[in-house]
Amino acid sequence: MLHHLRVRNLGVLEDAAIAPDRGFTVVTGETGAGKTMLLGALRLLGGEKAKTASVGPFAQEAIAEGLLGNDDDEVGVTRVVPREGKSRAYVNGNVISAPTLAEKIGNLVDIVGQHDRLALKSPQAILEIVDARLDAEGKRTRASYRETWGRYRDALGDQRRLGGDSMALERELDLLRHQAGEIAAAGLAKGDDLRMESIGARLRNAATIRENLFAVLSQLDGVTSGSGEAVSTLRKLAGIDPAFSEQSEVAEEIDARAHDLHRMVRLLAETVEEDPRALLELEERLTLLGDLKRKYGRTLNEVLQFGKDASLRVSELESLLAQASTIGGVVAGLEADLAGIGADLSSARRDAAGRIEDEAKAHLTELGLPAALLSIEIQPQAPGPSGADRVTLSFASDERLAPGPIEEVASGGELSRLMLALRLATKTPGGTIVFDEIDAGVGVRPPLPLDASSPTWPSPLRCSV
Question: What is the mean pLDDT of the chain?
Answer without folding.
Answer: 83
